[in-house]
Specification:
It is built from 13 helices and no strands. By secondary structure, the protein is mainly α.
């Protein structure tokens, strides 16, 4: 090996070491914001077609003002129900605490039909009856269970509020990304070209289509079902639990579990305390909500979602375990993109952008 080749080899090693240090250092600095940036990009890609139409209505005039109003309107759609859910939970928590302090806290007794519920019916009926008969004794006899339940509730509430806050920030960043979408797209194409030479545009098209397919066909349908379910729970008199139950509906819809498995136990419970006519109306309404995905998915998925449902399932569950409620939405999108990139790389053919 010549002296010149030796110098080149040393220089290359030094460059690799320096670049590696810079990459690791940069990641350590921005790792707190990685999740937020990914969520912002997903939101921007999903909303861009709608945003582009809004901008088109104003023929590109006052783009900054229109973008700001567009983002503010979307933020209002998140803030309004969040305030409602938070207010209901806080008010109900105060009532429970005050009633407990005054010794007037009561839990309505369970209906006899609860015993017939599969697997958990008898145990649930017994526990519920004990709590209904003497709440103070029930708490004294089951301190750990009560403590863990209260802790789980407040941890879930904190996680929900954190996700709402991150979503609001992500919307603001998404507005910035959408206002400079052309530059961002070209940069993305160049980056993808580095991964697979000559296929940057195809890969970018595949990624954007994957994001929009997952968002429209999975996430949007789940959110619609969750919002409609929330109104149903609130109107029947379950306002204090409506937010939590709506989140359970969204989770079930995302991981492709029939929403009817969530709402049927609630319907049975409603029949234990509500009048027959309102309970029947509630049951019909909730079953319509549970089956709504059969109508919405064909409408919103024009070309169909190409990602296997097992990928969506793992993304939703793994994302929620790793990143909380926000991960429930981000996980399926990230895994769907990685799955399609993997398939394109293994096949090493023209990328299917449908």
């Amino acid at each position: 090996m010549s002296i010149q080749n030796s110098k080149n080899t040393i220089n290359n090693y030094i460059k690799i070491v320096v670049l590696t240090i810079l990459l690791i250092w940069s990641f350590m600095i921005i790792k707190t914001f990685v999740l937020l940036m990914i969520w912002s990009i997903i939101v921007a890609v999903a909303l861009y077609p709608f945003y582009n139409k809004v901008i088109g209505l104003f023929k590109g005039k006052k783009k900054g003002l229109v973008t700001s109003l567009f983002i503010i309107a979307l933020m209002a759609l998140i803030i309004a129900p969040s305030f409602s859910v938070t207010g209901n939970i806080v008010d109900k928590s105060k009532d429970i605490f005050n009633n407990f302090e005054s010794g007037t806290l009561e839990i309505p007794p369970p209906n006899a039909s609860v015993k017939e519920w599969p697997l958990v019916g008898k145990k649930l009926y017994g526990t519920w009856s004990n709590a209904s008969n003497d709440m103070e004794s029930f708490i004294k006899n089951n301190p750990e269970e009560v403590k863990s339940s209260v802790g789980w509730f407040f941890d879930s509430f904190k996680g929900l509020m954190t996700s709402v806050l991150l979503s609001l920030i992500a919307l603001i960043l998404a507005g910035v990304f959408m206002s400079s979408a052309d530059e961002g797209y070209q940069t993305g194409v160049k980056f993808m070209d580095k991964l697979m030479v000559g296929k940057g545009k195809d890969l970018m098209t595949m990624c954007t289509n994957t994001i929009r397919s997952v968002v429209k066909g999975i996430l949007l349908v789940a959110v619609i079902q969750g919002v409609l379910a929330y109104f149903g729970f609130a109107m029947i008199g379950m306002s204090s639990m409506a937010g939590i139950l709506a989140i359970v509906v969204i989770f079930a819809a995302i991981i492709q579990i029939p929403v009817s498995l969530v709402v049927i136990p609630v319907i049975i419970y409603v029949f234990s305390f509500a009048e027959t006519t309102p309970a029947i109306i509630f049951a019909i309404y909730m079953m319509i909500v549970a089956l709504l995905d059969n109508v919405l998915k064909p409408m919103l998925l024009a070309k169909g979602l190409q990602t296997p449902m097992i990928i969506i399932l793992m993304g939703a569950i793994g994302g929620m375990i790793f990143q909380g409620i926000l991960g429930l939405f981000i996980g399926p999108v990230v895994l769907a993109i990685m799955h399609n990139l993997y398939i394109a790389w293994v096949n090493d053919t023209e990328v299917d952008v449908n």
